[in-house]
Design goal:
The complex is a heterodimer. By secondary structure, chain A is mostly helical. Chain A has a single domain, classed as Orthogonal Bundle (MetI-like fold). Chain A is globular. Chain B has a domain of 159 residues: 3-Layer(aba) Sandwich (Rossmann fold). Chain B has a six-stranded mixed sheet, sandwiched between helices. In chain B, helix 2 crosses helix 3, helix 2 runs parallel beside helix 4 and helix 8 crosses helix 9. Classes of the chains: A mainly alpha, B alpha/beta. At the A-B interface, helix 5 and helix 6 of A face helix 2 and helix 4 of B.
Chain lengths: 245, 243
């Protein structure tokens, strides 16, 4: 039996036997990413919707900056958060470094541009298609951004799921600000990196499989939402407004 | 109301120019819409009909010239492809009233009344996006009717409908344009359908490349010698459309 097969079998045994070490890490990882996504989505959805509708001087520069933030490596986000939360940093007095909160902040900052940029795109497309009709009914910028975001809720749900996927699978930021402390700030990705370097491949592979399963579940959710939406809106009928179903 | 506004007119455009970048969409438009008129805007694609309607509704502002409107006259616009939110038909109609300042619960109640007006109350709970094009256009008419407008602006409301839906929507347009004891109805609509223009309009404005080339009572517009005397371009257009 090859090392990979042997590790995979042991990894499956760890998953099935509900190994406490493995499932504690999985639980913490999901909790950090879910909290970070909630925070990022709260702000990102509002900001992105507004950017999709509002027209102001300097908007182009704002969008360029936002799109640039999409490509910022997670280690850079981790480094910035580390500097802010370290003893000599701006928020050093809070004592958040190497804690659950620090990891949440880092992942929220990492995901915020993703949620904002994708929401902006979705709402701006909707604004181009229908904003004029809402304006004709008397809806101002804020109302329009809210109405269009709500109307595009299925597309935005996909954005949220994608954001969670980005958060849960990143390793650089949480490694720097969390410190990968056993039983405290160790999450799936940092544990995989550590266990692989230690040569404990079954645990690393087990965590990898769970991470894959989480991503599979998220993608299945997206498909389910799409299917349900098509069913609710009458199959492939796009409506006279030519709105994609 | 600006100085020079003529009493009895709902809209008064003087020397209006409007451009989309380098493209001049409207050039030197002088147009007065009086209460009770049913004005058809006629012309080929890109002639400026839709732009003019948007300008009349306040969705666009002129680069040059002035647009004076009777502030006391409520107006509503219906588009060629109505936008329906992903929610029930009733909520879509209520939206217009809610945006107009009415409480949501009351708006939903009045929406049912408006839907009954277009014979759509049976579909009130249906998802508006799942309706056919003709049904969506009727919902859009109900949404506009709920606002009790004195001035209707309609941008080719039957252009993308099948013949049956076209007849239904046209019948509603004729019905809404009819003056009631409470209100004098005014309607401005863009159309490619000259038959429809003949049936609904009292006055026809012919546009070509952003300019008004003919502005005649409907009887004169469809009288070939008179139209030719007024505008040979408009005469050629009508001849081509009826050929």
């Amino acid at each position: 039996m090859s090392t990979f097969t042997q590790s995979a079998v042991t990894a499956l045994e760890l998953i099935i036997s509900r190994d406490p070490a493995l499932w504690t890490i999985v639980g913490r990882s999901l909790a950090v990413s879910a909290t970070a996504c909630l925070l990022a989505c709260g702000l990102g959805l509002v900001l992105g919707s507004w950017l999709g509708v509002a027209r102001f001087r300097g908007r182009g520069a704002c969008l360029t900056l936002l799109n640039t933030m999409l490509a910022v490596p997670s280690v850079v986000v981790g480094l910035v958060v580390y500097l802010l939360l370290s003893r000599s940093g701006l928020f050093g007095a809070w004592g958040w470094l190497f804690s659950f909160k620090a990891m949440v902040v880092a992942q929220a900052l990492l995901v915020l541009p993703v949620v904002t940029a994708l929401t902006r795109q979705v709402v701006e497309d909707a604004e181009h298609g229908h904003g004029e009709q809402l304006r004709s009914l008397g809806a101002g910028t804020l109302l329009r951004s809210g109405l269009l975001a709500w109307d595009e809720r299925f597309a935005l749900l996909t954005v949220l799921i994608a954001a969670f996927g980005r958060a849960v699978s990143e390793v650089g930021a949480v490694m720097i600000v969390g410190g990968n402390i056993d039983g405290f700030t160790r999450v799936m990705t940092t544990a995989i990196a550590l266990e692989t370097s230690k040569g404990d491949l079954p645990l690393a592979l087990g965590l990898g499989l769970v991470l894959l399963a989480v991503m599979l579940l998220l993608n299945s959710l997206i498909s389910l939402v799409r299917g349900w939406r098509q069913k609710v809106e009458g199959g492939s009928f796009a409506g006279p407004a030519g709105v994609p179903a | 109301m600006r100085a020079g506004f003529v009493m009895g007119s709902l809209l008064d455009l003087r020397g209006v120019d409007l451009s989309y970048g380098p493209v001049r969409a409207l050039i030197g438009i002088d147009l007065r819409i009086d209460a009770g008129e049913r004005v058809a805007l006629v012309g080929g694609n890109g002639s400026g009909k839709s732009t003019l309607l948007r300008l009349l509704h306040g969705l666009l502002r002129p680069d040059e010239g002035s647009v004076a409107r009777d502030a006391s006259a409520r107006q509503a616009m219906v588009f060629q492809r109505p936008f329906m939110l992903r929610t029930s038909v009733q909520n879509n109609v209520a939206l217009g009233l809610w945006l107009d300042g009415m409480r949501w619960r009351q708006a939903r109640m009045q929406a049912l009344e408006a839907l009954a007006r277009v014979d759509m109350e049976m579909l009130a709970t249906r998802n508006a996006r799942a309706l056919s094009g003709g049904q969506q256009q009727r919902v859009a008419l109900a949404r506009a009717w709920a606002l009790r407008p004195a001035l209707w602006l309609l941008d080719e409301p039957t252009a993308s409908l099948d013949p049956h839906a076209k007849r239904e929507v046209e019948a509603l347009m004729a019905d809404f344009a009819r003056p009631s004891a409470q209100q004098t109805m005014t309607m401005v609509f863009a159309s490619h359908n000259l038959g429809q223009v003949k049936r609904l309009a009292s006055r026809v404005v012919y546009l070509e490349r952003g300019r008004v080339l003919a502005d005649l009572p409907v009887g004169e517009f469809f009288d070939a010698p008179r139209l030719q005397a007024a505008s040979s371009a408009a005469h050629l257009f009508v001849k081509g459309e009826l050929a």
